[in-house]
TrEMBL record:
Binding of Mg(2+), residues: D224, D248, D252
Lineage: Bacteria, Pseudomonadati, Pseudomonadota, Magnetococcia, Magnetococcales
A single cellular component GO annotation: cytosol
The protein's name: 3-isopropylmalate dehydrogenase
Name of the gene this protein is made from: leuB
InterPro entries: IsoCit/isopropylmalate_DH_CS, IsoPropMal-DH-like_dom, Isopropylmalate_DH
Broad class of the protein's primary localization: cytoplasm
Assembly notes: Homodimer.
Binding site for substrate: R95, R105, R133, D224
Length: 357
């Protein structure tokens, strides 16, 4: 039966990178994958057309798809809008609507790019770690929040970091299950020394390990130390599990081990739905220039074929094609190295298609 994919290009380079991922989907279709591909609106582009960054039609289409592949949202044009209708609210909204609580962000250092990192090759080579980020709760969603004017004229801006036992437990279980197939090592990152919500996080993660995953070697680290350790000695980590905001920040940091944020794909998973997207944003500084790296999005498509479409053989081919274009010394500007050939977004996408054969 045909698998239904919903593409949500979004804003800025989202449009450019999804166009390259679309070439890969078209290739898969031409090579036997039965796919029905639709496109929908999200983010600033959706706001401009419909007055909301997350139209009902997008939620409905996402719920009837086997998987969603998203580009990125946001941009300077929409920064002065009320928070309720900002592009980013569209992304948070779809994560909530689909209950995508588990965000997998694999940071893999390709051997061809070990010296593209700003860190020493010996520090990063061989890295293959997984950041498991809680995605549908935490401070990005907690109530109360807002900006108020106080009686004395000062303004008060506030957000709330809330976690419930079940929200922690389900993402911790995902992390432990992943770790059972890897090194059986999990580092849980929190700020339990000062935040009660993450003291609960630590307690729940520990209790689950004790009760159901005694084989897992669990460690705990404060987020400030984790940020430092990621740069000092990243190979100490295999699976890292953490809150929504800490995972957001630490995965951007981890991306630089690989050479560029343009190399990191992600899968956002719930019990019923799944959405795939690069970890980066809409990159207004390079949008429209045709220089964005499409590989994170193409690798996100690969994760989609593997996890949601039951087409692991196609995922293997996409992964091999990405390796092949790097072997051919083709580089977008963000991963450019001396002696290599610089190519733009579309040329990189075309090279992947050529490598796919
Ligand atoms: N998932 C999403 O849709 C996300 C959206 N955003 C939104 O994106 C906008 C820009 O945010 P920033 O903080 O600048 O983060 P960003 O991730 O868009 O860009 C950060 C830096 O990385 C570079 N970069 C990002 N992706 C790249 C790629 N594929 N190839 C080459 N270089 C790449 C950009 O040029 C920029 O210098 C904001 O409106 C923000 O809210 C930010 C992060 C995630
Ligand atoms: C809207 C933001 C929370 C997006 C972001 O930075 C991310 O998911 O990495
Ligand atoms: Mg982010």
């Amino acid at each position: 039966m045909s698998k239904r994919i919903l593409l949500l290009p979004g804003d800025g380079i989202g449009q450019e990178i999804i166009a390259e991922a679309r070439k890969v989907l078209d290739w898969a279709q031409a090579n036997g994958a039965e796919l029905t591909i639709d496109e929908g609106l999200i983010g600033g582009t959706a706001y401009d057309e419909t007055g909301t960054p997350l139209p009902e039609a997008t939620i409905t289409a996402a719920k009837s798809a086997d998987a969603v592949l998203l580009g990125a949202v946001g941009g300077v044009k929409w920064e002065s809008l009320d928070y309720a209708v900002r592009p980013e609210r569209g992304l948070l909204g779809i994560r909530k609507a689909l209950d995508l609580y588990c965000n997998l962000r694999p940071a893999v250092v390709y051997p061809q790019l070990a010296d593209a990192s700003t860190l020493k090759p010996e520090v990063v080579s061989g890295i293959d770690m997984m950041v498991v980020r809680e995605l549908s709760s935490g401070i990005y969603f907690g109530e109360p929040k807002g900006v108020e004017t106080l009686a004395d004229g000062r303004k008060k801006g506030y957000n709330t970091l809330v976690y419930h036992t079940d929200e922690i437990e389900r993402v911790a279980r995902s992390a432990f299950e992943i770790a059972m197939k890897r090194s059986k090592k999990v580092c849980s990152v929190d700020k339990a020394n000062v935040l009660e919500s993450t003291e609960l996080w630590r307690d729940v993660v520990t209790a689950l390990r004790d009760a159901e995953y005694p084989q897992i070697e669990l460690s705990h680290m404060y987020v400030d130390n984790a940020a430092m350790q990621l740069i000092r000695n990243p190979k100490q980590f295999d699976v890292m599990v953490t809150t929504n905001m800490f995972g957001d920040i630490l995965s951007d940091a981890a991306s630089m081990l690989t050479g560029s944020i343009g190399m990191l794909p992600s899968a956002s998973l719930g019990e019923k739905y799944a959405l795939y997207e690069p970890i980066h944003g809409s990159a207004p500084d390079i949008a429209g220039k045709g220089v964005a790296n499409p590989l994170a999005t193409i690798l996100s498509a690969s994760m989609m074929f593997r996890y949601s479409l039951d087409l692991g053989a196609i995922a293997d081919k996409i992964d091999a094609a990405v390796n092949s274009v790097l072997d051919q010394d083709l580089r977008t500007a963000d991963i450019m190295q001396a002696g290599k050939t610089e190519v733009g977004t579309a040329a990189m996408g075309d090279a992947v298609i050529k490598a796919l054969g």
